[in-house]
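User:
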Amino acid sequence: MDVRLERMADVLIEHSLEVNAGDHVVVSGPLVTSEFALVMQRRILDAGGHADLRLVPEELDESLLRLGSPSQLEWINPTARRLLEHADCFVYLLAPTNTCALSGASAAASAARRRARRELYELLESRERAGEARAVVAGLPTHALAQEASMSIVDYTNLVVEAGQLDAEDPVRVWREFRARASRLAERLNGVSKVRLQAEGTELTTSVRGRTWIAADGTQNFPDGEVYSAPVDGSTQGTIRFPHATIVEGRRVDGIELTFEDGVVVRAHADRGQSDLDALLDTDDGARRVGELAFGLNERVTRFTGEPLFDEKIAGTVHLALGAAYPECGGTNHSALHWDLVCDLRLGGVVELDGAVAQRDGQFDTDWF
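Assistant: Predicted structure:
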C-alpha cells in the first residue's frame, strides 16, 4: 500500500468521524482492503476507540443476487441491524476488484435487494441526523477502478491522494479550511429559489425555495468537495444530459439524457445500457424524481473516472441524484435508489440563480465562491 494512503486513515479518524475514547467504530469493506483496515485499527486504538473490522469476500453480493430466492433477497441480517442501532462510527471502504461483478445478476434481483436494504440506510441516516452516529464512505485505489478510468494504478493512486489532499502537510487542516469556504457558499445558496442549468443538451430548471444547502467537507464521503440540497418535489422541468459513463451495480450506462415534466422523468435515453437505465428508473415510485442537486467544488479532481464518488466532486460540475432525498435538506422524496449523475459545465455551461448568472464555464462568480 502506498504510504501516502495512511494519511487517509488520519483524516477519517480525526476529521470525518472525530473518534473519541470508547467509541465503537465499524470498518467494513472487501478483503482487498485488509492492509488499510489494519492501519485504521491502529488509528482507532490510538484514539481510544474500539475497532470492529468486518471484511468480507467481494463475491458474496454476486452469489446472493444470482442464487437467492425472493425471501433470501429480502432478508435483513439482524446482526447488521443491531450494529446500525448501537455502534458509534461506520467506515465503508469502496475498493472493487471487479467493477462489473454484479452485471450478471438480474435487474429484478438487484432491485429487490435494493428495496430491502432501504430500511438499513434510513436507520443509519436517522441516527446521523440525531447526532447518535457518524459514517463515511472512503474510496481506495484498485486496479479495476484504474482500468475503468483508463489510468495506470500509479496514476489512479495519485488521483486518490490529490483528491483527498493527502499530499498536503496537514490534510486535516486543509479539509477544515475547505469546510469554512464551502459553508459560506451553502449559506448564500440557502436564499436561492430558482436554479437554471444550461449546457450542451441541457436546459433544466428546478426550485430550491426553502430548502437547505449543506457543505460536504469530508465528513460523509472521502474524498469530498461539494454543496448539495434537495429540489422541491414536482418543480424540475426540462432536459439534462450526462455524457460520461457511469457504473451502477456492475452495469455501465453511457450518454444518459433525461426529460422531466412536473418533477418526474417522462423520457429517458441512454447511448448504451438503455435496459439498465429503464430498470433503475423502475425501482419504485420515487426513482423517477430528483432527490438531490449539488455542485462539485474539488479543484483537484479534474477528469472523469466512471466512479461517482470522485466524478461528482469535480469542480465545475453539477449532479442530480435520482431517488432518495436528504431529509436534512428538507427533501421528502423516498426511494430505494439514490443514483448520482454528473453533468460537466466546464465547456459552455451556465448556472443561473434567481435569474442571475452565478457560474459560467464551471467557474463560480467570485461573489459566490
